[in-house]
Amino acid sequence: MALGLGAITFWCVRDQPQGELSAEALPGGGLQWKWRDAGDTAPRPVSLRCDYLGPWLVGLRLNGRRLWLWPDSCSPSAHRELRRYLVRH
Length: 89
What we know:
four-stranded antiparallel sheet; 1 helix; about 15% helix; Toxin CptA
């Protein structure tokens, strides 16, 4: 997956946990999702599951915790790439 998915990073706001979600490509072709809380220096591995994929809003479960991604949570290209990944998986 050479789309740069490993570089997807965005900030989550609006009464949500604030931090940065990123993905690293694994050698076997999967992804390792990581979360860095605002103010922390190092990200930690997390489980990520999409349970709502609407036309604008994306609903995620980050270690079981509800997380909503709004269109302005990240750049349009990162948002589009994430949505494409979530549709495929």
